[in-house]
Amino acid sequence: MDKLIATEVPGEEPEEVPTAESADPPPNNPFDPRRLRLSQDFAAGLGVKKALVTVPIRKPPREWWVQVHPQEDYRLQTGLLELKEDREIYLVEPDLWPELATEATFGPRALFTALNRQGVLFLWPLRLPGPDGRIDEWSRSALEAATMASGRWVRVVSNMSLGAYEVFTTEAAIPAPEWPVVPFDQILKTAFRDRFIDSFDHPVLKRLRGEV
Question: Which structural domain range is residue 112 located in?
Fold first, then answer.
């Protein structure tokens, strides 16, 4: 109900005048704030979708809560070349794998599609057991963490005294992740668009051979 202020003129009935702050905007007012206010589903109403232009290839920082995509189609066991000093990871054409088998920077890896609570999509690379089936505790515990993260939020924290990763879960009511509707090959293409080694003439392999 509007606030009313009574104004009195001698000999006449008091007139009730709406206050400025409670008066309704005039009809068809283009500056009516009710017309101009954004709705909660503004982006959805316009059909706006966030484009996937960057996909980091990294392990999750210790402060991140993360989940792994529950579908097997969003995981891949492949051959990667990792330059730790440069913090760069390259996807390698399968035809080159036999020749790189003895290269220390090359090896079998698992790629898991993962998402943190802020909605950042990334590929989580994890070392796989070698030809002899052996694997160190850091790699083993990281693989277990990724498996546990399928369908639940986890934090992965390194424990130097333990020599392995510790995995923390939560019973808090954290909303489920909203996975981008993007095929896995597009995720791979975006992540490795400048980091795909498809020939022995690739600059990275030339550098490893001491040719540049």
Answer: 66-208
Whether pLDDT at 151 is above 50: yes
Q: Are 138 and 165 in contact (CB under 8 A)?
A: yes
**7 DSSP 8-state letter:** E
Please tell me whether residues 92 and 120 are part of one structural domain: yes
pTM of this structure: 0.74
For residues 40 and 111, state if they share a domain: no
- Total number of domains in the chain: 2
Question: What confidence tens digit (pLDDT) does each residue in 49-80 have?
Answer: 666 789 999 999 999 999 999 999 999 999 99
The Cα 178–Cα 50 span in angstroms is 12
Q: If you ran DSSP here, which 8-state letter would residue 150 be given?
A: B
Q: Are 169 and 156 in contact (CB under 8 A)?
A: no
Same domain, yes or no, for 36 and 129? no
Continuous segment of H or E residues that includes residue 155: strand 154-159
Q: Radius of gyration of the chain from Cα atoms?
A: 29
Let me know whether 101 and 196 are in one domain: yes
CA distances from 47 to 51, 75, 164, 172 (A): 12, 29, 45, 32
Has residue 60 been placed in a domain?
A: no
Q: Which of 115, 126, 120, 113 is nearest to 82 (CA)?
A: 126
Backbone angles phi, psi at 184, to 5 degrees: -65, -35
